[in-house]
Each structure stands twice: as C-alpha cells, then as structure tokens.
From TrEMBL:
Mode of membrane association: Multi-pass membrane protein
Annotated NCBIfam families: CDF (TIGR01297)
Lineage: Bacteria, Pseudomonadati, Bacteroidota, Cytophagia, Cytophagales
Domain named Cation efflux protein transmembrane: residues: 13-207
Entries under SUPFAM superfamilies matching the protein: Cation efflux protein cytoplasmic domain-like, Cation efflux protein transmembrane domain-like
Coiled-coil ranges (or none): none
Swiss-Prot/TrEMBL keywords: Membrane, Transmembrane, Transmembrane helix, Transport
Name of the protein: Cation transporter
Family designation: Belongs to the cation diffusion facilitator (CDF) transporter (TC 2.A.4) family.
Organism name: Persicitalea jodogahamensis
Transmembrane segments: 12-33, 39-60, 80-102, 114-136, 157-176, 182-199
C-alpha cells in the first residue's frame, strides 16, 4: 500500500516537472513575441517551477526510502527542505522581477503582438491551474508537503498569469504601457508573499512545530474509540514527516493489571490510531499505572480496588491531552 502511494506521488511530481518545462517554453515564446515585462516576469517565475519540481521529485523519492541505521525516523523531513528550497527560489525570482519592473518604469519600451502573447499565457493558466489543483488534492490525500507545496505554487502561478493577461488586455484597450510594468511589480510582490509562506511552513516542520489540525484529528480518533480502562492520556505529541506519522504519548491503565493485559491494551490503542491514518504510523506508548485520585473520573465499573466513587468525566481535548501531566492534577475534586 505504502509502496503504491510513493509510486503515485513520484508520477505526479514527474508530471509537474515535465509540464513546467513545456509551459516555461510557451511563456518565453510569448515574451519574445511581445517584449512585455509582465510576461517576462511570468516566464522567469516558471523557471523556478522547473527547479522546484525537480527538487520535489528528488525529495519524494528520498522520503520513500525505508528507515535505516542513520535515519531511524525515516527520510520524510526532506520534504520540508523541498518546500523551503522552493520558497527561497520564489523569493529570489520576486526580487529580480521587481527590479526589472522598476527599470521598465524608468526606461519604457514599446510592446507588440499583445493579443497573441496573452493567448499563449491563457493556455498556461488552464494547464497550471488544472495540474496545481490536482497536486494539492493528491498531496493532502497522501500527506505529502512536497506535492502540496508544488501544487500551490502552480495555482499561484496560474492566478498570477490571470492578472498578467488582464494587464495586457488593459494595455491593448488603453494604450497605457506603464500598466505592464505595474502588473509586473504587483506580480513580484505577490509571489514573494507565496514564497514566504512556503518558507514559514518549511521552518515550522523542521523545528517540529505542532500541527493543530493534525493533533485534533488524532485526539478525535482517541475520543471516538475511548475505552473505560483508558483511564488517562497525557503528554500526547504528534509529528508528520512526509507521509509518515509519529505519535508518542502516555496511557494510564489499571495498576493491578498483568503485563499481558497492559500490553494488549496498548496494542489496541495503537491500532486505533493507525487505522485513522492512511500512511505509515509509528507510535510509542508509555503505560502508566493509575493512582487513587484517578478514581474520581475513571468509568471502570468492575474495578476491584476502587477507593473513590466516580464523579465526572474530564474532557479529552487537544489542550488536556497534550499536557505533560496526569489530568487529575488539573481537576478539583469535591
């Protein structure tokens, strides 16, 4: 299953890489025909697509490799590097685009064949938009940051191209050629913002920043399958590396259980989490023995050592389960 997912991701990013080469050629042809600075900006940004898709292809192939002695947690983090690399390239291109736009403001040049050029760019909008949407959809389905980043890059490229086509049409109708440079400058600022967003996502992943949505999905799976003998869950930590999910947590179980009973309960807990994630899931569960204070929120009816009557449940939410302490320390008993 995992092997098929990896092959599919590689095919998708290879499609993106090949189409980026084709679309780049079309955009430079449009620039050659029109001498439009806005179209040149779009063409320069498309070169970034080629390098970004190439690096994404490499990162996906590397992230698909199994764990080894040097990489006990797998190779999934390479996808964060891929997104960061793409973001850096986008920001670099944005700088060159803005500089070129300012120079064209200072030194205007005549434009030509705008109708044909805008038609060629319109073709790239349709192709980029379609492939970008598909990559984002598949990337989310397979938990691949590299695919999502490349897809969003293509979508932003398509949106930017729409703006550029609109600017070219405005030049055709108004004859105001400075609109071309203004659109180029706006385009540069827009892709710089997109590049910053990718860099932000990359750094967050490399620094193991908590993903709120991912954590909420794991907590919801635990809540839906909660057993009476899962007395308490705390110190829950969740990280996504490529398609691989890593979870570690503490699970409180009845202290009088045998080692075999605790082992089976932990395995059941792990299976619940694995069944709710499509990729590889690595789970480390530390089993804690219950304490007398746990009786106040423990629903285990046939407990032979209960010291206090059940009073109320504790809400198993993201905040509570992520705390590095047993939940009864936060509860007022009375």
């Amino acid at each position: 299953m995992q092997i098929n997912q990896n092959k599919r991701k590689i095919r998708l990013i290879l499609l993106s890489f090949l189409m980026s080469i084709l679309l780049s050629g079309i955009k430079f042809l449009a620039y050659y025909l029109t001498d439009s600075n806005a179209i040149l900006s779009d063409a320069l940004e498309s070169i970034i697509n080629i390098f970004a898709s190439g690096f994404a292809l490499y990162s996906i192939r590397l992230s698909a490799l199994p764990k080894d002695t040097n990489h006990p947690y797998g190779h999934g983090k390479i996808e964060f590097f891929s997104a960061g690399f793409e973001g850096g390239l986008i920001i670099t291109a944005a700088v060159f685009i803005c500089v070129g736009a300012i120079q064209r403001f200072l030194e205007p040049a005549p434009l030509a064949n705008l109708s044909l050029g805008s038609g060629l760019i319109a073709i790239t909008v349709i192709i980029n938009g379609g492939i970008g949407y598909y990559l984002v959809k598949e990337g989310k389905a397979h938990n691949s940051l590299a695919l999502v980043a490349d897809g969003r890059h293509l979508l932003s490229d398509a949106v930017s191209s729409v703006i550029l086509v609109a600017s070219v049409v405005m030049v055709l109708f108004t004859g105001l050629e400075w609109i071309d440079s203004a659109a180029s400058l706006f385009f540069g600022v827009l892709i710089a913002f997109n590049g910053f967003q990718l860099l932000r996502k990359s750094v967050a992943g490399l620094m193991d920043e908590s993903d709120r949505n991912l954590l909420e999905n794991v907590v919801e799976a635990i809540r839906q399958h909660k057993k009476d003998y899962w007395v308490d869950v705390h110190n829950l930590r969740v990280q996504q590396y490529g398609a691989d999910l890593h979870i570690d947590t503490h699970l409180t179980l009845p202290y009088y259980w045998t080692l075999q009973q605790s082992h089976e309960a932990v395995r059941e807990f792990e299976n619940v989490l694995k069944e709710n994630h499509p990729g590889e899931t690595e789970i480390f569960v530390h089993a804690d023995p219950c304490l007398p204070q746990c009786c106040y929120f423990c629903r285990l009816d046939d407990c032979p050592v209960r010291q206090h009557a059940f009073q109320h449940d504790i809400d198993w939410d993201v905040v509570n389960l992520a705390k590095n302490q047993k939940l009864f320390t936060e509860v007022k008993i009375g």
